[in-house]
Design brief:
Helix content: 40-55%
Largest sheet: 7 strands, mixed
Strand order of the largest sheet: 3-2-1-4-5-7-6
Number of helices: 16
Number of strands: 7
Strand content: 5-15%
Oligomer: single chain
Distance between the termini: 51 Å
Number of domains: 2
Shape: elongated
Order of helices and strands: HHHHHHHHHHHHHEHEHEEHEEE
Amino acid sequence: MAATSLVATRARRSDGSALFVGLSLVHAMLLLAVPSAPLIAILLWWNGNTISHNFIHRPFFRSRTANRAYAIFLSLLIGVPQSLWRAWHLSHHGDVPLRAPARRQAAAIWIESAAVLSLMAVIAVLWPRIFLTAYLPGYAAGAALCLLQGHYEHAGGVTSHYGRLYNLLFFNDGYHVEHHSRPHAPWTDLPDLVQPGARASHWPAIVRWLEAAPLDALERLVLASPALRRFVVSRHERAFRALLPAMAGASRVTIVGGGLYPRTAIILGRLLPGAALTIVDLDGGHLETARALLDAGVRLIRGRFDPADPEDADLVVVPLAFRGEREAVYRAPNAPLVIVHDWIWRPRGQGRRVSWLLLKRLNLVRR
């Protein structure tokens, strides 16, 4: 109750609440006009991470009665009792177990739950086809999207995403590290709370699974095909060769990851024949795979690369699948030369395109 009262007290400040209320009305009108499963799912996910999330932390109205009425409206809109969602979410922020609600909170949960169940019953009786083909699958898919979003916002530690488009459409929801540091700060203030070194991803949470698993799967596909191996090596070697003048004199090279199919070590072994090459990879299985494809002189280390630690190397190469803050690598290179594999639309420093088909480029930055 103390946390809820604190939220209500701080809600006096104007933070765009009228915009959220207006958008929730648009949400309702869209559902009435086009009651389809995809629309229900997408709007549930979007509302849960924007309007509903902001309402939990900073209720939109000065009147407690108005906030209670709006909580019922939001509950009907997304099918989730807002008081229950608020209790769980605040326990998540406080990192404490969910406790039995106080009498007033319990009453609100019961009222909102009854409202949601009543709406479901009305739709099921009056419009059974819409209920079975649109509402139920849309609700299930939207809930799954919210669970996926919540998982990847916190997997491996609370993580932010600073992409402009996502934060425009989701009202700075990507600033998740900042939100956890100041849960009651209005969404408009979150960009001002960014701290150097904050854990971040260049993917929004909902698609953050793209950072690792699919890339590993593609690597295994390449590994299994001699034709694909020749293709990716030739395209990467051409890009590395274009950067060779900048790499002149590099005698110690650290390659981060890349153990599954060590194309970078293969290429740099050719381009920098006198250099000492080291591969650092967390996956011991990847390193064993690499060992069979490399000369015995390449050093293999099982460990984690931290871009904040100075590297005892002239050149560091960071992979596309790097599970860390890529921007930290760009902001403060931890070696004289750092080459970062990145998406083709993210040029930095002195860059060379690898392939339009692979959507990749190499970015070279200097300390």
